Amino acid sequence: MPSHQEPRPRHGARDRDTAPPRGRVPGPAPRPAPRRTGGPQRPGGPRGDTKHLRLGSPRPRLRLVGFGLTLVMLAFVVRLLQVQAVDAEAYAAKAEKSRYLSVRLAAERGDITDRAGIALATSVDAYDITADPKMFTPEESKVGNAPEQAAALLSPILKVPAPELVKKLRTPKSRYTVLARRQTPQVWNQIKDLRSVFAEKARDNKPEGGPGVSVLAGVFQEPSSRRVYPNGELAAGVLGYVNASGRGGGGLESMLDQQLAGQDGEVTYAQSGGRRVPTAGGTRETPAVPGSDIELTIDRDIQWAAQKAISDQVAKSRADRGYVVVQDTRTGEILAMANAPGFDPGDLSRADPAGLGNAALQDAYEPGSTAKVISMAAVLEEGAATPDTHVVVPNRLHRGDRLFKDDIDHPTWYLTLNGVLAKSSNIGTILATGQLGKTQPEANRVLHSYLRKFGLGSPTGLRYPGETSGILAPPAKWSTSQQYTIPFGQGLSLNAVQAASVYSTVANGGVRIDPTLVRGTKGPDGRFTAAPAPGKTRVVSERTATTLAKMLESVVGDEEGTGTKARIPGYRVAGKTGTANRVDPELGRYRGYTSSFAGFAPSDKPRITVYCAIQNPTRGSYFGGQICGPIYQKVMAFALKTLQVPPTGAEPAGLPVTFDPGD
Questions:
Q1: 182/185 Cα distance (integer angstroms)
Q2: Beta bridge partners of 514
Q3: Where is average pLDDT lowest: 132-136, 254-258, 531-535?
Q4: Helix/strand/coil (H, E, C) string of 86-103?
């Protein structure tokens, strides 16, 4: 054994001299050194001291992922609890709302009839044409321009501009829109036919076969009603009309809208597959309550006679307009209220907007000589004169700052008070009313009190929309000229119903009865409820009223009277003519005339009052007795016959008109 140990080869070096000698048992061979790859040699000492690279523990990362998943699941649980427990009702309501579609059920509007139950305004079956805009989207209709195509087809049928229809159909967030209201069944039939035709075309053009989809598949109908007026223009001014929303837009349709309209109901449809389909379990309905029927005091036949007479004369005289009022003197009921020109409330497209009202109640005008009956009533009731009182009437009369005259130049007339009324003398009326007080202001106050009692300056009591009360200033504000013009009907204004009521008051023995237009209502249950009784006011004594009736007979019956064209064979007629200067509403000054006639019959047992007026006649005569007297005669004769009023057979009183100044 050598005395010293041989040196160990360097790590990583190979040397054949290191092989063991033959015959010796070799020990473990040293590991070969790793092959160099050109990179830097990993630092370290001998192989036995090298440390191996080890991965970190996965547990922290697993814990982090688990914590995150826990938070996510917790959020889901909290949201689920909120939806199912905390906000369950709110979400259920939202789901219910999106599932169901509620549609209004229009109540059937009540009828308006005449006093015999004949319909003047009624409702017929109609349809509201509706659509589901979602069904016109490209996704549902499979057509990119479905709204435009549908609008082009529907526009000529519905009479609605195509762009307006397109706008309604292009509201995809909505499931309901109304394209047109109150269309006739014929319109809906046209739409159904078109829808079928286009569905068939779509089926034929579909390559793979199967059911086709019409471009109008999203158009539906809902039952409704449409207002119609069977008699056209008859009583249109009284009835008014229904507007586009189905509500009263004027006249009694507006005044009584709440009673006529009833109460709308509602139906709720379940939606399925993007369509609105009524189902047995998914439809809820609150029935509509029909409106009440309104029975008027109007007599259709008398209304027709009045409307024809005034329309013919307005056209013949080329006047602006005219009106006739017929009233039952015993009850105050309006039997007719006619206006000319009129309009068709069922077709407002051709109507003049300025003529849609009721001029008989809404026009305020100066009545002229028909108001002299009030002056005579005051003179008689106050005991200032009698029908036989002598009144000397000069050709001109100077009062205040004016010179007054009658309609015609004349020599000095020697008239009785009855003659003043029969010949309609302005000067004679001024002289007579001057006896109502010791001074002119006192006489004015007395006259004003009678004008008010006869209803001037106050509503008629009809409560009609747009009605005028007229103009009657207090006597302290009467101008110098008004103090003398008001007694003969200038310087104050009224409406036609007020004028008729004055004569009905005289005919009714001096008791004024508030005019009425409605007799009663019939509810959905069929029960009739009469209208409240009208108010009554004693204006003058029965004796004064009887005397006035006799004096008014002289206007018609005496050859010197101004109302001879109003005579009716076999009947005693009381009446008064009127011709007044007319204020032009556009110019604000006098231009043209108001021609009128008022009276009642039979004069000794009054039953009917007729009043007519024509505004601004421009052709032929403008005197009230000449153009309104014949209207009175036609309408009164027809009304007496219709109501079967017999002649009394008594002879007229024959009061004197003039006196002999030598007596």
A1: 9
A2: none
A3: 132-136
A4: HCHHHHHHHHHHHHEEEE
Region class of 47: left (phi > 0), else alpha (psi between -120 and 50), else beta = alpha
Residues contacting 100, CB < 8 A, separation 6+: 268, 269, 270, 271, 282, 284
Band of pLDDT at residue 400, cut at 50, 70 and 90:
confident
- 251, amino acid identity: G
pLDDT of residue 80: 74
* CA–CA separation, 298 and 112 (whole Å): 10
CA distance 568 to 565: 9
| Lookup: tokens for 169 | 């159909």
| Count of residues in the chain | 663
Mean per-residue pLDDT, 371-399: 97
Q: How far is CA 320 from the centre of its chain?
A: 25
Distances in Å between the Cα of 144 and the Cα atoms of 152, 490, 551 are 15, 72, 84
pLDDT exceeds cutoff 90 at 206: no
Q: Where are the alpha helices (DSSP H) in 132-204?
A: 138-141, 146-158, 162-169, 185-204
What is the rounded CA–CA span in Å between residue 358 and residue 323? 9
**Which is it for strands 536-538 and 511-513: parallel, antiparallel or unpaired?**
antiparallel
Query: For the whole model, what pTM was predicted?
Result: 0.79
Q: Give the residue among 326, 253, 345 at the shortest CA–CA distance from 294.
A: 253
Instruction: Give the type of residue at 275.
Output: R
DSSP-derived pairing of the beta strands 112-113 and 293-296: parallel
State how far the Cα of 515 lies from the Cα of 501, in Å rounded to an integer.
7
Give 600's pLDDT tier (boundaries 50, 70, 90): very high
**Is the pLDDT score of 236 beyond 60?**
yes
Angle 304-305-306 from CA coordinates, rounded to 5°: 90
Q: Which helix (H) or strand (E) holds 70?
A: helix 59-81
Of 344, 609, 624, the closest CA to residue 500 belongs to: 609
Query: Distance between CA atoms of 473 and 133, rounded to whole angstroms?
Result: 61
Band of pLDDT at residue 342, cut at 50, 70 and 90:
very high
Residues of the chain with pLDDT > 70, as a percent, come to 84
Alpha helices of 536-652 — where are they, by DSSP H? 542-557, 624-627, 629-642
Given this model, what pLDDT does residue 229 score?
95
Is the link from the previous residue into 602 a cis peptide, with omega within 30 of 0? yes
- pLDDT value of position 215: 79
**CA 613 centroid distance within chain:** 28
Whether the per-residue pLDDT at 18 is higher than 50: the answer is: no
The closest alpha carbon to 482, from 399, 587, 590, belongs to: 399
The answer to whether residues 329 and 507 touch, using CB atoms and an 8 Å cutoff, is: yes
Alpha helix stretches (DSSP H) within 205-299: 236-239, 251-255, 257-261
Q: What is the pLDDT of residue 213?
A: 56
- Structure-block tokens of residue 339: 């206006």
